[in-house]
Write a sequence for this structure.
């Protein structure tokens, strides 16, 4: 309740034009918004652009936020709208590229996204479960995840420094994700939806 | 296309690696035609997104926030600008209406300067007003220029000197030039000395920092082992609190190790850069005084005692045909060309190096000890006792051997995967691999420094040494009863294990690194019988059967095979990696027959064949 009050105060200050208040909102929720968008979009630059659009939209329409849901749920609903619009755009613009995976992937992701209604609850739980699952990885797998996802090393570079083939690094990442997915599913008790 | 291949392509695609058109089409087809595969891919897409999103550093957040407020600011400025333009248009429109009313009321001749002239035209009008001041200024400048020209002509006018004065002036100029050049040379020599000192100091500091990091890492590794043991004990105790604490302690040590490993990698890079900087400084000596250089001859590092065949002295990309008795200067090297080429190099302290056919060494130096780089080939060294702290260093593409006095043999391949094999006959040698691990190899032992090979000393002679003494191994007549296309290949880390899977060998035991191996099919894990495959060998060999350690039950035909204590490791990066123990048995020249893997096994065995070395 206290949190909600603090959040309402922040929203109110932001509505009155306080950049500091909106900056705090942005810092609190940006990782969730970007995380949520990353589920649909592979390209980090596009994720950042859409996240920025999400916050710009929310800034413009703060007046319309009535506090009926949490601020995060409201932000994620804007992000979801952005993501679906983007996927729809990819599907439509690149429909003529019959041999390209992108429009088909966009279509499949759209179909799955439309089955999802729970915005915040599931996402939050998944993030928490994933954190625990990563801690349980064997050191080499954890190191690979860290090199690829955190340090931003390319698979080819990891392969070269570890004396492995690039293909084996890709497959290793896939297997680690599979193992993490099983771990997350078992912790949450039901398979996740996209 | 196999499921493994589809998975690899998907992983590449998801990771942002480019796929060829053909690969993209194949992946699309596979995903379109298999809904289960597609479902898994989409779930993987989802998890990939979660992983990407969780790893955001605070710097990213700051950048994101800055970008947001910049965009917001620009948007607001843009809005303000549009509003301003709109209001101006509106203003113009209303004034235009007023003017049209004035036009109709006043005659044209009475019109003053246009009220709505632009800012630029207003300025040019003001410039027009300043124009009267420009003429006197130009006049004054012309007068000053004329005075300057007159002064120049009167003082600088050439008066022809006599020839004696000219000769004397020329001599003076030449002497002054020489003195200036000598001063420059001295200055350059001092600078070079300072550069070398600085490079040396930087290297010493970098080495020290690296050594300290290695020591810290060794301590952390010890702590990690202890924490792991404590964790296992806690696991067995069934006490939740104890388990949680042990787990937390272990994770903390793990985090420390990762940090220290990252720090060590940075320090190793720093050290490498410092070494390179030092080499670069040493390679750019000051331009020598031509008089001095003709009088002083640089001392040779070593002398070519004997050569056979085509041998060159090399310096960078230059090479000259070598002659027996010739001295090698610092920075120079030797290159043997052809199967009959040989060379013997003697250092002043009687350290003797024998270079085998097609060998190449470069950059002979003395940097706190003798040092040379072996590019490739076989080097037999009898190193005289070196002073403490002045060990002789053999740098190779696979690692580095440090010697204080011993007899050794190095087999060097330019490919770090094939690496450097060190056989020590007498004394002790420190061998370091590219990962920075060092082992001491004693007399009668060998070690292999190569990527993907566990660096550890082993008794006996290296496969490279054994191979050299034996005729070439020829394997023929491979017969697989089910007719599958098994294939022979050379075993290095990174090679595929099976013909029908994408698994690769990640760590290869030194004794079989570079040996002939058979790529079998994992789908043959249920094969049976004592005669499943056979092949012929032209000499006595040791046949290794690599058997998955997770499954203790072995087929009956494996009974005569003994555990060599060595392993091949697969899928090292995966959550569950596999270790294949190497079971060995000797076979005489002739046919080798191996049985099926039998149904109890979850994986198919693989085969490695190594020529049996002669006893030393």
């Amino acid at each position: 309740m206290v949190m909600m009050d603090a959040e309402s105060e922040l929203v109110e200050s932001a509505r009155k034009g306080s950049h500091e208040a909106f900056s705090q909102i942005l810092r609190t929720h940006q990782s969730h918004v970007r995380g949520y968008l990353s589920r649909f979009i592979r390209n980090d630059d596009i994720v950042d652009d859409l996240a920025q659009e999400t916050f710009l939209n929310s800034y413009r329409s703060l007046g319309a936020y009535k506090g009926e849901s949490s601020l995060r749920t409201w932000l994620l609903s804007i992000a979801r709208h952005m993501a679906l619009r983007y996927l729809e755009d990819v599907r439509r613009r690149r429909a003529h590229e019959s041999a390209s995976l992108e429009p088909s992937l966009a279509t499949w992701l759209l179909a799955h996204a439309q089955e999802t209604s729970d915005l915040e609850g599931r996402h939050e739980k998944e993030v928490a479960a994933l954190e625990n699952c990563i801690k349980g990885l064997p050191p080499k797998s954890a190191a690979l995840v860290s090199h690829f996802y955190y340090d931003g090393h390319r698979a080819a570079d990891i392969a070269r420094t570890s004396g492995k083939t690039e293909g084996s690094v890709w497959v290793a990442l896939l297997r680690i994700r599979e193992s993490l997915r099983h771990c997350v599913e078992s912790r949450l008790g039901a398979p996740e939806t996209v | 296309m196999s499921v493994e291949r589809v998975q690899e392509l998907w992983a590449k695609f998801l990771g942002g690696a480019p796929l060829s058109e053909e690969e993209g089409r194949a992946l699309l087809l596979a995903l379109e035609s298999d809904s289960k595969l597609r479902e898994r891919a989409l779930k993987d897409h989802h998890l990939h997104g979660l992983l990407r999103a969780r790893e955001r550093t605070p710097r990213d957040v700051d950048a994101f926030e800055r970008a947001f407020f910049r965009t917001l600011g620009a948007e607001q400025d843009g809005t303000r600008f549009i509003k301003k333009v709109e209001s101006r248009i509106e203003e113009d429109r209303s004034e235009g209406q007023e003017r049209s009313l004035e036009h109709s009321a006043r005659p044209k001749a009475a019109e003053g300067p246009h009220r709505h002239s632009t800012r630029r035209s207003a300025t040019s009008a003001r410039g027009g007003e300043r124009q009267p001041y420009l003429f006197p200024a130009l006049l004054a400048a012309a007068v000053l220029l004329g005075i300057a020209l007159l002064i120049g002509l009167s003082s600088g006018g050439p008066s022809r000197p006599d020839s004696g004065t000219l000769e004397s002036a020329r001599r003076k100029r030449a002497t002054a030039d020489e003195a200036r050049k000598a001063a420059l040379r001295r200055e350059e020599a001092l600078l070079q000395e300072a550069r070398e000192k600085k490079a040396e100091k930087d290297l010493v500091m970098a080495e020290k920092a690296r050594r300290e990091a290695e020591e810290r890492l060794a301590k952390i590794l010890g702590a990690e082992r202890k924490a792991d043991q404590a964790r296992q004990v806690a696991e067995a105790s069934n006490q939740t609190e104890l388990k949680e604490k042990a787990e937390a302690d272990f994770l903390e040590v793990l985090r420390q190790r990762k940090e220290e490993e990252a720090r060590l990698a940075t320090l190793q890079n720093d050290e490498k850069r410092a070494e390179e900087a030092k080499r670069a400084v040493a390679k750019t000596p000051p331009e020598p005084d031509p008089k001095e250089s003709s009088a002083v001859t640089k001392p040779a590092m070593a002398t070519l005692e004997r050569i056979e065949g085509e041998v060159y002295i090399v310096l960078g990309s230059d090479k000259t045909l070598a002659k027996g008795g010739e001295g090698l200067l610092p920075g120079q090297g030797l290159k043997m060309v052809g199967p009959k080429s040989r060379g013997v190099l003697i250092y002043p302290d009687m350290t003797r190096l024998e270079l085998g056919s097609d060998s190449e060494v470069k950059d002979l130096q003395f940097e706190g000890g003798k040092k040379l780089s072996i590019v490739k080939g076989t080097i037999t060294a009898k190193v005289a006792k070196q002073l403490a702290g002045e060990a002789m260093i053999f740098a190779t593409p696979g690692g580095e051997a440090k010697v204080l006095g011993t007899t050794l043999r190095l087999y060097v391949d330019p490919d770090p995967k094939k690496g450097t094999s060190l056989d020590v006959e007498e004394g002790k040698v420190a061998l370091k691999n590219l990962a920075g691990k060092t082992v001491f190899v004693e007399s009668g032992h060998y070690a292999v420094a190569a990527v993907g090979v566990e660096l550890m000393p082993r008794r006996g002679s290296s496969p490279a040494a054994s191979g050299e003494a034996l005729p070439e191994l020829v394997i023929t007549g491979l017969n697989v009863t089910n007719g599958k296309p098994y294939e022979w290949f050379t075993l290095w880390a990174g090679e595929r294990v099976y013909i029908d899977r994408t698994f690769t060998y990640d760590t290869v035991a030194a004794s079989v690194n570079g040996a002939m191996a058979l790529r079998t099919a994992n789908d043959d894990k249920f094969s049976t019988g004592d005669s499943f495959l056979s092949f012929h060998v032209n000499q006595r060999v040791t046949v290794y059967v690599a058997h998955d350690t997770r499954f203790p039950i072995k087929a009956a035909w494996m009974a005569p095979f003994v555990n060599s204590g060595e392993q091949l490791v697969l899928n090292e990066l995966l959550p569950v990696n596999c270790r294949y123990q190497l079971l060995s048995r000797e076979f005489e020249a002739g046919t080798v027959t191996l049985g099926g893997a039998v149904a109890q096994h979850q994986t198919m065995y693989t085969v490695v064949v190594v020529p049996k070395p002669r006893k030393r």
